[in-house]
Amino acid sequence: MASTISFGDANHGFQANIINGSVSTTFHLPAERPDTPPCPSVVIPFGCDADFVKRRELFDRLQTTCAVPGSRTALVGLGGVGKSQLAIEYAYQTRERSPDTWVFWVHASNTARLEESYRSIASCVKVPARQNPKADMLQLVHDWLRDEARGRWILILDNVDDAGFLLEVPSCGRDGQTSSMEGQSEQPLISYVPRCQNGSVLVTTRSRNAALQLVEERDIIAVEPMEKRDSLVLLQKKLELQDSGEEVIGEVIELAAALEHMPLAMVQAAAYISQRRPRCSVQQYLQEFQKSDRKRTTLLDCEGGQLLRDWEAKNLIIITWQISFDYIRQSRPSAGDLLALMSFFDCQGIPETLLRNCEEETAKQDQEERDSDHDDWGDDGNSASQSSVSDDGFEDDVLTLRGYSFISANADGATFEMHGLVQLATRTWLEVHGQLEKWKQEFVRNLCVAFPTGEHENWARCQVLLWPYTL
């Protein structure tokens, strides 16, 4: 004999003393109540920078390029040159200009951080089924972005210094991190960044090679150090010297030049001076900065007054660059050697011939080591083809360093330039790793090899080689 027992208005139960057959149970849960669609907003982890200095030509080009429906644009330049700050300002100005446009910020340095950013987007826009632990969150956000009914959006992929993890499936990404999302399909992460007419993508990266894997060459915007006038404005804002006299303005201009108009370096210097007032002035900082490499390194090793930067990004310009040095050293050691050698030359007009001397000697030594150990390596001829003595090897090394904006080629095609602060950071890195003297000797040896005999007809060449290094 069975009886029905009431459990309230919503449910009923069934009670039986003995059940001889099978029992099936069905739960009728209430349907998930749809969320109220939120209004478009700026979903980024940084506030608007009151001290931002608009680099007019650069910013106008950024706005024009990103305004094209479905565009993919990349800001490429040295660490600390202001790429992320440009992207942040562009995000807020876009919001001001077009309130109906969504702006999303994605930390794209590795798989885990990209997935974390996509979860934040899903939460913000209230993607249906986002609370299901088995849901493919990347796919859910991708589908939401593709839906033109959601309106226009801009997605900023920040800090994509190695695009490899975006181009491979998450389970075997090169960044060494696997996907943490259940139910995720086996496809490259970049496929979750949709190409559609209602959305645009902006990438920031230090590597031109990474940018070329994500956007077209014509859509790369090179971010260089600031123009003189913009450097002056930035330092005046940070030092609160907008109403200063000509003498102080002259000192600020000189400081900007000493720091090679690098935004992060100028912000560091301004913070150092501001924190130590009145015991430190612009003039006193300059005097200390110009004393020696060691003093310059010490001053640039003082943290404070950071630009708006991600917590992963280092706020010291020398360390910021040294992270890239480490990556180059691991991925292409010969390019790291070339950078080490170039750090001892005068920063302007570094002759290719002097660099190739070292390349050829290094290749010769490598070949001798291979010949003496041919029983282990075999004699298949492949090793020699990889040597940087070849034109292709040297050019690939140059391309690697140019791709990170560490060097630039002059119009004559035979000489290179390198920022003085990059040289300082490189020598500091070499000293930390116990290689400073080795590369200093290589530099001197190259000069000796290239130095001509003392006949009168060679004096002009002697002057070209030695003039930058005379006191």
From TrEMBL:
Region (Disordered): 360-392
Composition bias, Basic and acidic residues: 360-375
Organism for this UniProt entry: Lentithecium fluviatile CBS 122367
Domain DUF7779, first and last residues per copy: 331-430
Domain of life assignment: Eukaryota
Pfam families named in the record: DUF7779 (PF25000)
Phylogenetic classification of the source organism: Eukaryota, Fungi, Dikarya, Ascomycota, Pezizomycotina
UniProt name for this protein: DUF7779 domain-containing protein
InterPro entries linked to this entry: DUF7779, P-loop_NTPase
